[in-house]
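Researcher: I'm preparing a figure for a lab meeting and need a structural model of a single chain. I don't have an experimental structure, so a prediction will have to do for now. The sequence is pasted below. Please return the structure as tokens so I can convert it later.
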Amino acid sequence: MLRAAKQIARHRGTNERITYLCSKIVTSTSNSYYSTLNQKTYKGGGKSNGWSKYFLAPRGPKGWTIPPSRGYGMIIARVLRGALKLRYILLGGAIGGGVTLNKKYEDWKDGLPDFKWLEEVLPKDEKWTQFSKALAEFGSSVKDVIEIDPRLRQLGEDKIAEWRRWFDTRLDDAIEAADYQGSTLNESKGEIKAKTTVTALSLSNDESRRKYEALQSQVENLQTEVINVQIKYQRELEKMEKENRELRQQFLILKQNKKTSTKKIKKSLIDMYSEVLDELTGYDSSYSMADHLPRVVVVGDQSSGKTSVLESIAKARIFPRGSGEMMTRAPVKVTLAEGPYHVAQFRDSDREYDLNKESDLSELRREVEFRMRASVRGGKTVSNEVISMTVKGPGLQRMVLVDLPGIISTMTVDMAADTKDSIHQMTKHYMSNPNAIILCIQDGSVDAERSNVTDLVMQCDPLGRRTIFVLTKVDLAEELADPDRIRKILSGKLFNMKALGYYAVVTGRGRKDDSIEAIRQYEEDFFKNSKLFHRRGVIMPHQVTSRNLSMAVSDRFWKMVRETIEQQADAFKATRFNLETEWKNNFPRLRESGRDELFEKAKGEILDEVVNLSQICAKKWEEALSEKLWDKLSNYVFENVYLPAAQSGSQNSVNTMVDIKLRQWAEQSLPAKSVEAGWETLQTQFLMLMEKARKSPDHDDIFDNLKLAVIDEAIRRHSWEDKAIDMLRVIQLNTLEDRFVHDKAEWDHAVKFLETSVKDKLDQTEHTLNEMMGPGQFTRITHWKSLTEDQSKRRHVKYELDKILRTDEKHLPTLSYDELTTVRKNLQREGVEVDTDYIRQTWFPTYRRHFLKQALHRAHDCRKAYYLYTQQGTECEISCSDVVLFWRIQQVIKVTCNALRQQVINREARRLDKEIKEVLDEFSEDEEKKAQLLTGKRVLLAEELIKVRHIQEKLEEFINCLNQEK
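Model: Understood. Here is the structure written out token by token.
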């Protein structure tokens, strides 16, 4: 060392440099080492030898006393002894390379079986880091200054050369191992480069320049070796990850074979954090409250390579590709986590996509594209709806990234008019989060002046405290761009924006089919052989490759999380307190029930009412069915059966026509009408039960809208069984075959049924005539009303028609031509001009009223004619065929109601219950439907309180686990 110092002094021309270099050597090593050396040097008699005086004998404030010449044998012995001591130091530095593996093991430990015994064997990381840093500083200083005295070469040049080669090799290995995971080596190389630069400037002769060039070459070789070491260790890590996956699989197989009890799998920190973000997205999509939780926001111009950077970090090509087309149409939240298997999964799906299988990758990309297009509604090009997915795999850095649509400067004709503004607003919205980490992606193959994203980033983060700049496509930039311009970009001197760090990556060769492994290999080879980024020393090795980028982003992400998570939890505590206070003031006697809980309660009440359908008594069912059925059938019975037959003339023709009409009716429309009546009766009874429940004192009107919507939808879907129509057809045909009334009670019921039905029709006919003729004289006087011109004509026509009916009480239902001519001429004499159609329109209700009044008289006469009917049958003097007809109709209604009642109780109520359950299940999955049907201040306040409480609990759980990990 003394000889090296003297040699440098000869170049500098002063002894003061010797003093400075020696002091640097002494201070850069540990005190314990030199104290031990001092003790061994003075061992035996307490006298110091000449070697120790070079370091330990001070004289004056500026230098060290240079000892007299000693025997060369003693000097060689001392040098070899120092070399042996350095061997142990270098060996310890080499072991420092295991720090990275130790740290990596801590990350894998959650996915492996219990290996806690290793913690007692491996030392702590901090001790290894401190020792490796000290060793690197010592190595950097020693490597520059150490030279061998020429006098020693005369004694044994071969031995000294061999020792020097051994020393350089061991020193380089120790430095590389100690600086594997940090930037200490980069700082050391910077010192080497600075020293060599200063030395080159100070030297004037040719020999100095040659040494400077040699040192410069050594620095470049060292950079190459650093990249090679990174690649080497990366391959070793991948090998260990593969072994880890195999061990994990074997462990799971053994666990299944032992049939151990299943336990709840403990969620990782990043999964817990991602769930909190998902809850916040569902709670407040506008982030108007205080959602300032950190997330990595990936922003950049369209086609700048943002998605490719994210895929490189995720180690899988999970997004669809398009040439020149906008593919990212909605924010995609990707949660990266370490795991034994490389899989992806959407938040709302249980399916896992194996990212090692190309078939699963293709399906995943199709699903992403489908979800993006489905999120764009109403003619929009981009959407604010977030697509959440999780990607797990060996070696992935834990973080949450949000990929946003690329910023565009020009819109195409197939885009919505507000696409450009929507993308700008969405990007600024995510970047405005004060704790969001902005991953600014810049295309290195295009001019920097064409960048749109840098201005937005500068507006949101002017000081660059949370921005990381990434230059993509640098393989193209090497051929096209100016090296000085690239150097300015990566040093932060070209753009006005500032950033925490600057990185350069290669995201592929522009081939869609390239795998991530091929892209990473291409990236490593490029940076290893690049003249621009490596040979010319534009950037440091830790600023290149996607792997270094992902590590830097992950470290910054977790640092931001640890700094801000407590503050966000306190904000939610305050919000929860305010909501709870408001609930107690407005609803002191009620519990906070959200929409899901209220929906389940309403579901139970609706299903209980379905059960109550079967508890309605048979008599009530038959009365309701009979009323509904006659309401459906009465018009057909009068218009198509009774009136045409009764107005036909003779008694025999009446019975024949009735038989024909009834049989046609039973074979065609009667069964279908009966089923329709039964379906409507079921609906009516169910609504009556719901209405009765609404009037109970314990009724909660918050469910009314939901119940009505469910019932309406279920009844709309409900249809009677098809086989019920065939069954009813057989029963009704057999019933109508019976033409004989069996007893007096049935006869009286038939007469009453006839009278009631005829009276109803007579009332309808009277109402029709009153509308045609206008109000009577008394009503006109009392209500100050007058007749219209048409009503006055109708009165004149009716007066003439009544004359005809009074003349012939058994007149046929139609007017003859002569009768029409007579009526028209009589009206003309009175100054009323009408046509034959006008007369016929007035004749129809007039004759019907006349006929119905006669039918009532016949019904009254037939009330006491049962015994005559039983003795004389159809030849009875009193015509009672209409009573027999209505008895037959009454019997059909009775057996039909009985069949419908049994069908409702045994089959239809259960089918309706099933359909209501299906509707409820559909509504339970439709959040928009529930929000539409369950409304009001009570629901909204409870829903917000429940969500805030849930988010706060998840935040506290995450904070506890985060503190335990520290």
